[in-house]
Amino acid sequence: MFQAYIEFPGLSNHLFNFKESCTYKDIQKVVSKHYNVDVSRYRLKTSLGLYLNESFHFKEYFNVSIPTCISVMPSLLGGKGGFGNRLRSQGAKMSMIKTTNFEACRDLSGRRLKTIHDAERLARHILEEPERKQKEKEKLKKKIEKILEDPFERSKKKFIEDSEFLDQSRITQSRIEEGVIANIESEIMKCKNKENNSVKISKKWNVDSDSDTDEETSK
User: Fold this and answer.
1) Rounded to two decimals, what is the model's pTM?
2) What cellular component terms from Gene Ontology apply here (predicted)?
3) Up-side HSE of residue 183: CA atoms within 13 Å toward CB?
4) pLDDT in tens, 172-219
């Protein structure tokens, strides 16, 4: 006798006893009878990941002295295919796009081309370092020599001798000043008018209040 745990999705496991001469169909009958399902829609899978078929024999797959586990897996219908065709068409489209960036590729030793190119650029940078420093020193030296030749060159004031430009600038400046003064005067007049209006209102209010008090006293 063989013992096997039948594992059905969503239900608890059950231990069943089978004869040594049992076949794949015998296991299907037990599953169909116990779980009341159509076994043609399910497949039987061992704990080792092997799917059972009609050529199955217990002795070939399991140890008789140890209970084994058989899972009942729902079988899925296959698709219509065409996946490989889509991959080929996609590959053809990608091959049409030309690229010049091969940094992600590897050489025969397995190193990325980007790593190799970075190392080469770093080596060139280190080799050119003395030359760059020499150029910077020469540039600084020329700048110092130019300053020493005429140290007061920057302090010299430059005057504009264009009389027409000077006249226009004076006229523009005077117009701006007149506009600013006129704006200030208008604002002052507005403030004075507001103050006068507020004084008039307060006086009127005082007169009205006095008349009211007189009427009350006369009564």
Assistant:
1) 0.33
2) cytoplasm; nucleus
3) 6
4) 988 898 888 888 888 888 888 877 776 666 665 555 555 555 554 555
